[in-house]
Amino acid sequence: MPILGPKHSSEHPDRLTHCEEALEAELNQFIDRAICAGWSEDEICTALTSLADHRVLSLLANADLRRRIASVETGGIVLRRTP
Q1: Is the terminal CB of the chain with fewer CB neighbours within 10 Å at N or C?
Q2: Domain regions of the chain by residue span
Q3: Closest among 59, 57, 61 to 49, alpha carbons compared
Q4: Do 32 and 12 form a contact (C-beta atoms < 8 A)?
Q5: Cα angle, residue 19 at apex, residues 13 and 22 outer, rounded to 5°
Q6: Do residues 3 and 26 lie in contact, with contact meaning Cβ atoms separated by under 8 Å?
Q7: Distance CA 47, CA 18 (A)
């Protein structure tokens, strides 16, 4: 079954709930496959939480880097070590 796309704009208050609903069946199938491979449900959920956290931290770091690069004058980037 394909994952359904968003029904509303990014400002809609139910968008996150709709995203969860769209992903739930695929996630449950993925977890079932991991259980069949021998992992416990606790291990799987902990690993998924950790992976999601790492993904969010990466997104935030990349956004910060893009912001810093955009704020630098076009003459180049000066690298310096902060004390």
Answers
A1: C
A2: 15-70
A3: 57
A4: no
A5: 140
A6: yes
A7: 23
As a whole number of angstroms, the distance between CA 25 and CA 1 comes to 9
C-alpha span between 78 and 67 (Å, rounded) = 15
Q: Angle CA(31)–CA(29)–CA(45) in degrees, nearest 5?
A: 20
Least Cα distance to 34 among 56, 59, 17, 51 occurs for 51
CA–CA dist 55, 21 (Å, integer): 20
**N residues, the chain:** 83
- The whole model's pTM is what? 0.74
User: For 39, what's the count of Cα atoms within 13 Å in the CB-facing half-sphere?
Assistant: 15
Q: Whole-angstrom Cα distance, residue 38 to residue 82?
A: 47
